[in-house]
Amino acid sequence: MKSMTTAAESEATSLPLVGQQTLVIENDARGNRLRILDPHGQVTLSVEVAEAGRPVLRFDSGLQIRTEGHLEFEAQGVAIRGRDEVRIESGADAHIHAAGNLNLKGNGDVELQGKQVRVN
């Protein structure tokens, strides 16, 4: 494990991982960062923790989650944003339920297809 301190009151510690990857932990006045670097020094995962904010996970080369079991997200609120596209697919039924209002909006065409389309 290698630890170094600079004049800017920043401290970094690095630890070699399997597959020629490296774990780097940085501490400075802005907060703490944990980064995993690939063998070429590119960041594949980083965790940023600031005193006033919530932790931020970054996956710079993409992220894929696979499970054979059930995957569930639960939070006070959930936001999903795609800069280019958002796609939700199901190999079987899909359900959307809102205890309050349900708003669908599109700045272009809104298309609804189905064998049967039922409207209240």
Give a verbal description of the structure.
This protein is mostly beta strands. Helix content is 0%, strand content 28%. It has strands at residues 2-5, 11-16, 22-28, 31-37, 43-49, 56-58. The chain has a six-stranded antiparallel beta sheet with strand order 1-2-3-4-5-6, with no helix packed on it. A hairpin with a 2-residue loop joins strand 3 (22-28) and strand 4. The termini are far apart. The model has no long low-confidence stretch (mean pLDDT 89).
Residue share in helix: under 10%
Distance between the termini: 65 Å
Strand count: 6
Query: By helix and strand content, what is the structural category?
Result: mainly beta
**Shape type:** elongated
Uncertain residue ranges: none
Strand order of the largest sheet: 1-2-3-4-5-6
Q: What amount of the residues lies in strands?
A: 25-35%
Number of helices: 0
Report the biggest beta sheet as strand number plus sense, adding barrel if it closes.
6 strands, antiparallel
Mean pLDDT, all residues: 89
List SSEs in N-to-C order.
EEEEEE
What Rg do the Cα atoms give?
22 Å
Write a brief structural summary.
By secondary structure, the chain is mainly beta. It is built from no helices and six strands.
